[in-house]
Amino acid sequence: MRSMQSSLAGNDRERILDAALRQDLSCFTRKVFNTVDPGTEYLPNWHIDCISEHLIAVTQGQIRQLIINIPPRAMKSISVSVAWPAWLIGRNPSTKIMASSYSKELSLKHSTDCRLVVESDWYKRIFPDVVLEKDQNTKSKFQTTQRGFRFATSVGGAATGEGGNILIVDDPVNPMESESAVKRIRANSWFSQTFSSRLNDKKKGAMVVVMQRLHENDLSGYLKEKGGWYCLEIPLIAEKKTCVHFPISAFDFVRMPGDILHEERMGKDEIAIARVNMGEYGFAGQYQQTPAPSGGGIFKEKWFRTYSSLPVGERRIVQSWDTAFKPEEINDPSCCTTWLVTNEFFYLLDVTVERMIYPTLKAKAISHAAAWGAQEILIEDKASGQSLIQDLKKETLLSVIAISPDADKLTRASVISPIIEAGKVLIPQEAADWLPDYIKEMLLFPNATNDDRVDSTSQFLKWASAQSQRLVRVRSL
């Protein structure tokens, strides 16, 4: 009798668990983890539940375009690329899913892991209607008898003839290649022009992008700039009080400043090691989901002093030009920073950024100098600036100074950062229309899309510092 009761209790527990696996994606994800990585202890955490709720919201049509930014090794691929597709197909065997990653090898790994789940005994028990076609069961694609499938491709890979109800992009760019503008542009163009077009139902289909941030203009940044995407950002360390919303349970999880995402997986000691190994820029992007450290990278926000009025007396105005001739959007713009120089400080008066063809650039340099009464005009003596230097010297009375760069952009910026840190650079206290973009680019460097403002500033401060040192030597004689 006891044996029968025990057996019934065991059967009840199995039925309850199976029901939970069918309905609860977070519970299902845990089971998937134990299947694809049986030798590793599963460590539950709130963020896994939160990701699951967002994916359920996508499944139910509440969210149609979802970006998830989360640190590496935080269950993102198992949750999004392995467990969720298996769960979707289990609940509806006709679901068509296309999933992609930056490499074919990574895409195939996620695909084979998902197929391992679908072919497991426990999966077949809870989803008996899922039967795989024998002639459509490969590493890159497995298909059900009800014509649903999971198809794996890579960024830039072929997807001819394929289409899906759900499109997934998991890590579109290799972190080792994230500094390559060519790689980023390739990934962004592939997504917008090729992969997103494979969505079968434009009204009901859904797209999910999951990745750690690598650059201001990575795929996440590119899509956020375009708009229309729901974004779930989960930094490793909370930098401010944050309420993380759970869309299904309508629960708000509160993170306080300094809260670590999952200390059982990565605590303070491991974080300290990651900061050293990756550097502050890499850590800020991949772990904090900001392509530059909070407060700035090479240049810190707190270093910039402000002024409410300009000093009286002798006014020495200097303009610094970083030039480019081609007006197309894909090319860098020309930038001019205008400065008031005193014995101790440098006051930033104006920042002008514009894409111009050469005749317009030359006219702008002349009129801009006249408008501010510039005594010296600094122009980098490179291909795009040589003609401007020659023409201004020949056609005007402006004091044009050719600047020959002696190092790469990053080195030049590093050299002048102590000047800003010392509080010698002042920006206007009152809002100027050019100021937000200037501060943003300075703080994001070297991860910003453009660096013209930084180049112009570096050029001026290096020259001005050299002038000051020369003056000090003369006075000491």
Structural Rg: 28 Å
CA-based shape: elongated
User: Would you state the CATH class of the largest domain?
Assistant: Alpha Beta
- Alpha-beta classification: alpha/beta
> Strand fraction band?
15-25%
CATH topology of the largest domain: Rossmann fold
Uncertain residue ranges = 1-8, 472-477
Strand order of the largest sheet: 3-4-5-2-6-7-1-8
Mind explaining what this structure looks like?
A hairpin with a 4-residue loop joins strand 4 and strand 5. Helix 2 crosses helix 4 and helix 12 (409-421) crosses helix 14 (452-476). This protein folds into two domains: 2-286, 3-Layer(aba) Sandwich (Rossmann fold); 301-476, Nucleotidyltransferase, domain 5 (2-Layer Sandwich). The chain has an eight-stranded mixed beta sheet with strand order 3-4-5-2-6-7-1-8, with helices on both faces. Strands 11-17-14-13-12-15-16 form a seven-stranded mixed beta sheet, sandwiched between helices. The chain has a two-stranded antiparallel sheet with strand order 9-10. The protein is of the alpha/beta class and 477 residues long. It contains 14 helices and 17 strands.
Quickly list its features.
single chain; 477 residues; alpha/beta; Rossmann fold; Nucleotidyltransferase, domain 5; 2 domains; eight-stranded mixed β-sheet; seven-stranded mixed β-sheet; 14 helices; disordered N terminus
